[in-house]
Amino acid sequence: MKAAFAIAAAAAATLVGATPTNIQARSSGTSSGSLPVVTVKGNAFFAGDERFYIRGVDYQPGGSSDTADPIANVANCKRDVAEFKKLGINTVRVYTIDNTANHDECMSMLADAGIYLALDVNTPKYSIRRDQPAQSYNPTYLQSLFATIDEFQKYDNTLLFFSGNEVINADNNTDCAPYIKAVTRDMKAYINSRNYRKIPVGYSAADVESNRYELADYLNCGPDYMRSDFFAFNDYSWCDPSSMSISGWDQKVQKFSNYSIPLFLSEYGCNTNKRTFGAVAAIYGSQMTPVYSGGLVYEYVNEANNYGLVTVDGSQLTELPDFSALMKAYQGTQNPSGDGGYKSSGQVSTCPTESETWQVKDFTNMDLPAMPSGAQQYMKNGAGTGPGLTGSGSQEAGGQSTTTATPGSGSSSSDSSNSSTSASAGAASSVHMGEMSMAPLVCAGIVTFFTLVGTTLL
Ligand SMILES: *[C@@H]1O[C@H](CO)[C@@H](O)[C@H](O)[C@H]1NC(C)=O
Ligand SMILES: *[C@@H]1O[C@H](CO)[C@@H](O)[C@H](O)[C@H]1NC(C)=O
Ligand SMILES: *[C@@H]1O[C@H](CO)[C@@H](O)[C@H](O)[C@H]1NC(C)=O
Prior knowledge:
By secondary structure, this protein is of the alpha/beta class. Helix content is 26%, strand content 14%. The protein has 14 helices and 13 strands. It is globular. One 2-acetamido-2-deoxy-beta-D-glucopyranose is lined by residues 170, 172. One 2-acetamido-2-deoxy-beta-D-glucopyranose is lined by residues 255, 257-258.
């Protein structure tokens, strides 16, 4: 279960049950009924002047077998928002959206319920392949990400973007890290060049202890333009009944104590034993809040791995026992008063050096691949219409980056990246949403896909 696959396999919904009183974001107030935008200060999130703790659930009904956009379906969204309100959550994480769909209604229902969106910008067909990161980092890929940013930057309740999800799931694919960081850099540059508000961009890491801290440091080293705005990781090590010391979370707090950007759990909720969600009291307790900014329970709608809080059958929704367990945990857990002991400033991390667990050879220290030259046009002109979920995919599209970025920018001064890729088609060429067995090869942004993969590998 330490491995990402196993964890994903177990993913079931967890609902975060913040009571409405815990949703302090709303009280900060803002114009026209919308929520205050969330910003990063030091190692914390703030909604207006109030510390913002993520109390959320992972929300991808249909899971791996049916990659549908949950926030483009107004009827289901309405049904689910009512449940979210019962739980008292303030955030949902969505793993896949269709960047050609309209999201106004659902985003507005979420906002009315005091709920923000944490969004993965990758889709199964538009994502970095962990076995061929260089080839899949290309203009066609970035165009899809940028189109997704265009679509969601207009909502005040867009909380943050995940630039990648579980791309690295073992020490031997840590060589994907420079690509993850380059994508994060490019997304930040795009937001900047389009004059959008500073929506935080960061990464969601698999539950892999061996390289957890090296990855966290790597994504937070170097100048601001290339650093993540936050770091999130999945953690299934708190299995009820547990404690800070039994789960080892006390050690993680210690090891991350100097981390200078917001940190939170992008998935948690071990289901080995009967779930009472004792982790909730810990996450929002005074031992963790100086270092952590909340978390997202895996997951809302039940799948084969039994992590769900509710089952959905057609339009019929049924709450499972875990739903009320989580609701109770949230109702019994207030946020700490004041600022929760956050650090308003800290030192950026030192880039890790090559090791047994950090096998990054091609790009050292702060070196990163240059943004593929074919993507420069989007910075100036905007991304245009995205490919949605039915596009032909980016992983074999060509035009990959072939150079190292010059310091101080994402660009290369002599980027000759207009060559089309000659990488072998092979397994990669047949990565489609329905073909989950290919997923181990994909640095995909979709947790639900890994769920299925996990099942396969197990
Ligand atoms: C990478 O490491 C994992 C275990 O950490 C192992 O299962 C896998 O076979 C390795 N892959 C390669 C290509 O060596
Ligand atoms: C955090 O920073 C302090 C002061 O620089 C240092 O003494 C301490 O060892 C650091 N802790 C960790 C876990 O790196
Ligand atoms: C690649 O770029 C070079 C230099 O800009 C140009 O001369 C060449 O025609 C381009 N090749 C392709 C296939 O676009």
